[in-house]
């Protein structure tokens, strides 16, 4: 680590906690841990507590004349502040991707407890095992946790499939661990659960950035093969539970494999990604109080961007088109509007790279309906009434119509009152609420899923 003038560094050694107020009124707690070794080297890390991200390296620490600078290059972030005379407060500013926000760090004695009320506490009343298996066709090693009831097997089992973005086996985000809570609940009801780190995350290998939903479906198929190799698992009762994008992947796997006994779609898409993104953008903007003119302008820009992506398969040419579109848009915006919209020239390359990723190209145009028509196993499709990311009305209707058109004999489609995209009980459904809500998954949603699976399997353990 690079350091300068650190003879006085002991003044700022220790744990420092501050809260950022970001777009939409959401609060994000940042924890910095600064320490020095006997050889004079400095170690510093940053945790984003409410995003569930820990141990981000702080590459450079500079401290002189009560002024501290911390550079977190991996996320294009930095903090600059001044230590107050009491030695307990550092007042300064956090900068990231061209956006500046005030940040006051306070000295604390121990790391805050980030456990949520529903997080299970060891010792668990069931067995837990770390497992590793391979998707041989893709050359990917997948690491996860298998939880097994302590009653007499063989047990029905489910594989949990996470939503978009790199997720660990607990689907950890904004201080919540939904898959940990879901697996705990189901295992206590007599259902074995396999939850897995996504490619390139945790203990799993592979390049997440080059993978599409179809590739992730291959990883799930490998998970099915693994469960079939376990004598504790009933090979005729292996099901899938997919959340968000996972609800798009589960039907793909169910069509490809006769070993899928049932699927649960939690906020699964029923329409194309492009259609979802338009709806999502407008609904979240309205929930955050954005005016109609800005919403219309954002919608027009999105349409131009997605058209360029779909029409131009050459990434270099497409990137130039996107750069011009976005630069033209930023030229007409004030600095305040840029910050509010999350635009910055410094972050433009990363935004364009993300838009042209294989995953995004596939997601924009993939229509789940032809696949859903082919799904013959039992299906439970649920959405929260206040889901602004995968809106319930349009998606549940499309899922139900596709299952009916395909002649599926056992499907249940339900909209759950008051719940958001994470199936938390919410006020508005806005993503800015996710971290502030203590509940991880509504007990109503857990019970519905548990009851539905138990009715279709041999799981006979009484509800807890």
From TrEMBL:
Which Pfam family, an example, fits this chain?
Peptidase_S15
Xaa-Pro dipeptidyl-peptidase-like domain: residues covered: 139-399
Q: Which GO-annotated molecular functions does the record name?
A: carboxylic ester hydrolase activity
Listed PANTHER family? ESTERASE ESTD
Q: What is this protein called?
A: Xaa-Pro dipeptidyl-peptidase-like domain-containing protein
